[in-house]
């Protein structure tokens, strides 16, 4: 179970747009493989409507040249960009939303929810990642778990400003395209805030235990994304999803089903829409494509 959680934490950066992209501090160049970067793209079409589906990574290292070829052409042909969420312009607003949802209503200090040995490892991990554990005492465990899942990647050179959503949003604004969203920031944060306390504690403990594997796990997922290999990406995610079925259902499957319904409704309107969501939603069983198929809607992979 513990080894599955690092995959889930790495996958979270392929599942959530916006809320995981801010550096943890806001809350309390390499060009290698550039020529090979060709992420997967799908389309849904009828007589007067086209919906493109593009899987994103919310943090990347500088120099990853993904916005080209078929992806760029599909984006340029689109009238509208649809993301998971629209981030507030002021990052303090997102921090306020997240912080408000994370405050422990029962007044219990976060470290007191952990067994002594787990508490010691947690506090050491926070210190090693320049996160003052004392500043998180007022919060529920999921908040520290998310912070610890991002902090190592920040130290390794992954940047929120290099994430796919940032690039797409800037291009859409420059082109005067409409920008919409499938969810609100409050909804995304609510998925974690609503987890039972036992799952939150397990989430945090396993995050701490899996930090040593975090770099390799995330790098592998990003490599499969860059190479346009959703099947391999799904294989890496499957172990964590099977080991954590409750989290997988909340964070992935239920959302995929809702988004498929949204796409079905949107097909009744003419136009071209470019939808960009975490790459984990477009890979493996119960993906958005699977949910669309269940609704009688076919998707097709778009060439490079």
TrEMBL record:
Signal in keyword set: yes
Keyword set includes Signal: yes
Pfam families in alphabetical order: TraB_PrgY_gumN
Signal sequence bounds: 1-21
Keywords: Signal
Domain of life: Bacteria
PANTHER family found in the cross-reference section: CYTOPLASMIC PROTEIN, CYTOPLASMIC PROTEIN-RELATED
Listed name of the protein: Polysaccharide biosynthesis protein GumN
């Amino acid at each position: 179970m513990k080894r599955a959680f690092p995959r889930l934490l790495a996958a979270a950066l392929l599942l959530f747009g916006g809320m995981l992209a801010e550096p943890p501090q806001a809350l309390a160049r390499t060009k290698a493989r550039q020529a090979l970067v060709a992420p997967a793209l799908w389309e849904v079409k009828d007589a007067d409507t086209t919906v493109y589906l593009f899987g994103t990574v919310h943090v990347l290292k500088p120099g990853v040249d993904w916005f080209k070829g078929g992806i760029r052409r599909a984006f340029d042909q689109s009238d509208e960009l649809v993301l998971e969420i629209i981030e507030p312009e002021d990052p303090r607003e997102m921090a306020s939303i997240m912080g408000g949802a994370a405050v422990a209503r029962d007044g219990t200090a976060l470290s007191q929810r952990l067994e002594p040995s787990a508490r010691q490892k947690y506090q050491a991990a926070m210190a090693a990642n320049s996160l003052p554990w004392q500043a998180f005492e007022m919060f529920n465990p999921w908040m520290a778990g998310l912070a610890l899942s991002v902090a190592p990647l920040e130290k390794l050179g992954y940047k929120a400003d290099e994430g796919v959503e940032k690039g797409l949003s800037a291009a859409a604004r420059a082109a005067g395209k409409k920008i919409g969203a499938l969810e609100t920031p409050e909804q995304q944060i609510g998925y974690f805030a609503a987890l039972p306390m036992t799952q939150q504690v397990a989430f945090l403990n396993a995050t701490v235990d899996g930090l040593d594997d975090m770099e390799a796990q995330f790098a592998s997922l990003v490599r499969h994304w860059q190479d346009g290999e959703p099947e391999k990406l799904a294989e890496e995610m499957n172990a964590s999803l099977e080991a954590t079925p409750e989290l997988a259902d909340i964070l992935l499957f239920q959302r995929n089903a809702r988004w498929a319904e949204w796409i079905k409704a949107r097909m009744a309107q003419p136009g071209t829409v470019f939808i960009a969501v975490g790459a984990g939603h477009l890979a493996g069983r119960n993906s958005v494509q699977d949910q669309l198929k269940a609704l009688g809607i076919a998707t097709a992979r778009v060439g490079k």
